Amino acid sequence: MGSLKTLSTWKDGVVTHSGDETNDAAEAFAQLLPVDTLLTLEGDLGAGKTTFVRGLARGWGIADDVTSPSFALLHVYQGTRQLIHIDAYRLNNPADFDDLLVWDLTRSPWNVVIEWPEKVAGRLPKKHWKIKATILADGGHQFKLFVE
User: Fold this and answer.
1) How far apart are CA 45 and CA 134, in angstroms?
2) Are 27 and 4 in contact (CB under 8 A)?
3) pLDDT for 36-70, tens place per residue?
4) Please, which residues have CB within 8 angstroms of residue 56's CB and are 6 or more apart in sequence?
5) Gap between the Cα atoms of 80 and 98, Å rounded
6) What is the pLDDT of residue 22?
7) Distance separating alpha carbons of residues 98 and 94, to the nearest angstrom
8) pLDDT 10s digit of each residue in the chain, 148 long?
9) Cβ neighbours of 85 (radius 10 Å)
10) Which of 41, 61, 124, 132 is the most exposed place for a label (fewest CB within 10 A)?
11) Going from the N-terminus, what domains does the chain have, and what CATH number goes with each?
12) Buried b / exposed e across 15-49, counting CB within 10 Å, b at 16+?
């Protein structure tokens, strides 16, 4: 695996074997993600999506306890960047995303991070960054970057 501080490493895929490793990797990735950019996180339950968001938050100096917004649908955190963390799993249709008023909440520098983006794909900007999280056969997790 290459340096966690290069986009090419993330495009090839970063593998972690613990929550701490995922946090550390995401903290490094936080410095690569441009401000005012949407990041989607795709992956099955248990693939490490929320753990990844915790690392991003740490990378932006957010000291709050970052938890899954499964029931609240979204959480807003402030550090060196504003982080809006959304879990779209419980949204029944893409139009429900509009009711969250996400784009009205953003204050630059911001990053919106959406778990389960396939539930609201029709409401997202065409150009955004995507991480696909996969659980590997050995129990590790792979995080692969796609820039659209």
Assistant:
1) 10
2) no
3) 999 999 999 999 999 999 999 999 999 999 988 88
4) 26, 27, 29, 30, 33, 39, 83, 111, 113
5) 26
6) 97
7) 8
8) 679 989 999 999 999 999 999 999 999 999 999 999 999 999 999 999 999 999 999 999 999 999 888 878 999 999 999 999 999 998 988 889 999 999 999 999 999 999 999 999 889 998 999 999 999 999 999 999 999 7
9) 27
10) 61
11) 7-147 (3.40.50.300)
12) bbeeeebbbbbbbbbbeebeeebbbbbbbeeebbb
To the nearest 10 degrees (0 to 180), the angle between helices 19-30 and 49-59 is 50
Closest residue by Cα to residue 43 from 33, 53, 55, 30: 53
Q: For residue 73, what are its two tokens?
A: 């649908």
Task: Count Cβ atoms below 10 Å from residue 121 Cβ, excluding itself.
Answer: 12
Which pair of tokens denotes residue 77?
A: 């955190």
Residue with tokens 């590790």: 140
For position 1, what pLDDT does the model report?
64
